[in-house]
Amino acid sequence: MARYKEYDYTQGKFIPIHFDKQILPGTFEHTLHYLIDNEIDLSIFDLRYQNDETGAPAYDPAILLKIILYAYSRGITSSRKIARCCEENIIFMALSADTRPHFTTIADFISSADQEIIRLFLQVLLTCDEMGLIGKEMFAVDGCKMPSNASKEWSGTKEELTKKKEKMEQAVRQIMRRHRETDAKEKDKGIVEQEEKYIETIKSKVKKIKQFLKENDDKPGKTGKPVKSNITDNESAKIKTSHGVIQGYNGVAVVDDKHQVIVHAEAFGAAQEHGLLKPMIEGTRENFKEIGSGKDVFDSAKLVADSGYHTEANMQMVMEEGIDAYIVDTQFRKRDPQFADVDKYKERSRKERREYFGASDLYRAKDFTISEDKRFCICPAGKRLYRNGGNVVLDRNTAIKFRSRKTDCRVCDVRENCLRNPATSEVRQVCFIQGRAPGISETFTEKMRQKNRFDKRQTHLQQKTWDCGTALCPYSIYDGTRPIYPQRETKGKYAMAPLLYYA
User: Fold this and answer.
1) What percent of the chain has pLDDT over 90?
2) pLDDT > 70: what percent of the chain?
3) Quick one: average pLDDT of 98-109?
4) Dist CA 90 CA 82 (whole Å)
5) What letter does residue 27 receive in the DSSP assignment?
6) 24, 186, 232, 315: which could join 150 in a potential S-S bond, CB 3.0 to 4.6 Å?
């Protein structure tokens, strides 16, 4: 019979632990511990505490910063989980010197230290610059959608919230009327108590909406029309993501390409990224100006961004300011030879949509055949369309326009595939683009397209852009290879900026 070594789970053992020996050189926690203790001035936190003569001693901000930033590097963002790690994980114990701060202390520090963290971020940026971690040759701008601690069901314009309040008040009146009617029938007391609690819940919601409507007006949008407010967090916005619509913020970061150091980060309550490029450029300039950079950092650095930041106004802004920017437009893949066969997947998608929705594709200009003398064209049904315009300007281009005869279209068998509204449209018109209209100046979007041509230099730039982009995914935090990503605070900025980078 086999014999095994004896063991006993009821026995105990005292293990001596030296906290300084647990923070090993060459690790992220060692770098974090050294920088906070030796390189960063934490006196900016002293004004938060007024316990010189009276009051209990406060937790050292150095301790809180160490455990919070180390937790972020491990993908832990919950204050309760951070507090539990300080009780169970030996590295957290060593960084906190086993002080074990309560989760409410950690949460309060994160949410209330926004101004100190911004100043602290500039110190870290200066340290990175002195160590040569910032190349200042290329910056990448990108962001992600982050949910806020607010429900999208509490969003709406002032008019919509007023209607919501009126519906709730009507629901309360109906429930109370039904309640009075059933009281006479000696209804079950449990059901009566449940209805009373429901009435109180609705009344509290109505009171919440009334208070919000009394203290706030509609938020104006770019076009002047009101945008939806949120009762819980009015600085957040309804944002469309790949996982549906969320109530949250658009977190944007500017990253240097040399070591993926974040040089500026901010969260915006905006659904679209179009209007965020200019404030990110200005914020980056201000940060480098604060750390003593004499000249404009964009005088020599390139700037890359995706199509979310591409608008005519943004292209005009970067070109007039002399920024060497490379911002792709929404049609860039059609010009990229690497995506030459992408249409076959689009055709499959169209076919699947037709089968699902029961709709058919309309004939497009490429389905019509133009004659050599350009006097007429032939439709898919074999009928002629005659030219009725030879110098038409469409979207800054000249075009030739053709129009069919009513007698041909009325009895055509393919009207459903040719006319957008077969019940009301009588004829089909089609235009063929001939080229750029004379006398029309080139737009800033077109200038950027010419700049983003696909040559060897652009291929190298794309690779550098990809290298920068690896630092712009806050849901992929890996030890030693990514920056530390922040949580937001309610004023629209990051409460915990990406303070440290471990190279």
Assistant:
1) 29
2) 84
3) 93
4) 13
5) S
6) 232
Q: How far apart are CA 136 and CA 295, in angstroms?
A: 12
Q: Are 491 and 268 in contact (CB under 8 A)?
A: no
Q: Which two tokens stand for residue 245?
A: 């619509």
As given in the structure block, the two tokens for residue 214 are: 């009394």
Residue range 109-149, pLDDT digits in tens:
988 888 888 888 888 888 888 888 899 899 999 988 988 88
pLDDT tens, 469-499?
Answer: 444 443 333 333 333 333 333 333 333 333 3
Amino acid at 180: R
Backbone dihedral region for residue 293 (phi beyond 0: left; psi -120 to 50: alpha; all else: beta)? beta
Q: Are 499 and 117 in contact (CB under 8 A)?
A: yes
Is the distance from CB of 472 to CB of 264 less than 8 angstroms? Answer: no
Please give the torsion angle defined by the CA atoms of residues 258, 259, 263 and 266, in that order, rounded to the nearest 10 degrees.
120
At residue 498, the pLDDT reads 38
Distance CA 259, CA 297 (A): 17
Sign of the CA dihedral with 347 first, then 351, 357, and 360 last: positive
Q: What is the dihedral of CA 52, 56, 61, 63, to 10 degrees?
A: 140
For the chain, counts of helices (H) and of strands (E):
17, 15
Please name the residue ranges forming H helices in 216-259. Answer: none
If DSSP codes are grouped into helix, strand and coil, which group holds residue 216?
Answer: coil
